[in-house]
Design goal:
Elements lengths: L2 E3 L5 H20 L12 E5 L7 E8 L2 E8 L4 E9 L2 H4 L7 E16 L3 E18 L8 E9 L2 E7 L4 E15 L6 E14 L2
Parallel strand pairs: 1-11
Antiparallel strand pairs: 2-6, 3-4, 3-11, 4-5, 5-6, 6-7, 7-8, 7-9, 8-10, 9-10, 10-11
């Protein structure tokens, strides 16, 4: 069993973060305010969450770097998914990146804060991921291929904007991985961190 939190501070993350912020600024400046406003009073505390959006796509940065999407199946439950590279943090340990796929079912039980610009719902979920990677190859040679299937439990908060079709999320995802063709171990426990921004089409 392994337990580690990735805190990679390599320049690729700084570059990726700057790119994300630039994209966010452009979208904020040009987005039409077609998201439906919510007439709820503002304040702090806990109250029920009611989505005012349906389907969104965007960018995710962190232990996963890629595309993320979210679809609300009702007012407070959603399916999210992502595809990207799960390699940057693992390259610190001599591994190489590979395709990473995940999907989760999310519940948004309460809102932590309400303001005129946005609501701040808390969410938790359960899901699965698949990824493949090469390992034991810090120089890029003699790589051995491996795959993993993981059970995910995402926990996060979402800055869900009321009057523009955007949201920004921050989450931590405890994950239990089951490895195939990975010599160091067959089971591993991990914490992944990511943040992202999505544009909502409906």
């Amino acid at each position: 069993m392994r337990a580690r939190i990735h805190c990679d501070t390599k320049p690729v993350y700084a570059t990726g973060m700057k790119t994300c912020l630039v994209v966010l600024a452009i979208v904020l400046a040009s987005a039409s305010a077609h998201a439906q406003g919510r007439p709820h009073p503002t304040g702090f505390g806990t109250s029920d969450f009611e989505a005012n959006k349906k389907f969104g796509l965007g960018l995710e940065l962190g232990d996963l770097v890629g595309i993320t999407g979210k679809y609300f199946v009702n007012s407070n439950q959603a399916i999210d998914f992502g595809i990207g590279d799960y390699g940057y943090a693992y390259r610190y340990y001599g591994d190489t990146g590979g395709i990473h796929l995940y999907a989760d079912y999310l519940w948004h039980p309460k809102v932590l804060a309400k303001t005129d610009p946005f609501e701040l719902p808390f969410y938790v979920g359960v899901g699965a991921r698949f990824w493949d990677f090469g390992y034991n190859c810090p120089t890029g040679n003699n790589c051995m291929d491996a795959t993993a299937f993981g059970i995910r439990v995402p926990v996060g908060i979402d800055f869900d904007f009321n009057n523009v079709p955007l949201d920004i999320f921050v989450q931590i995802v405890p994950t239990l991985d089951f490895f195939r063709d990975y010599a160091p171990h067959s089971v591993g426990f991990d914490f992944d961190f990511s943040l992202g921004v999505r544009y909502w089409f409906s």
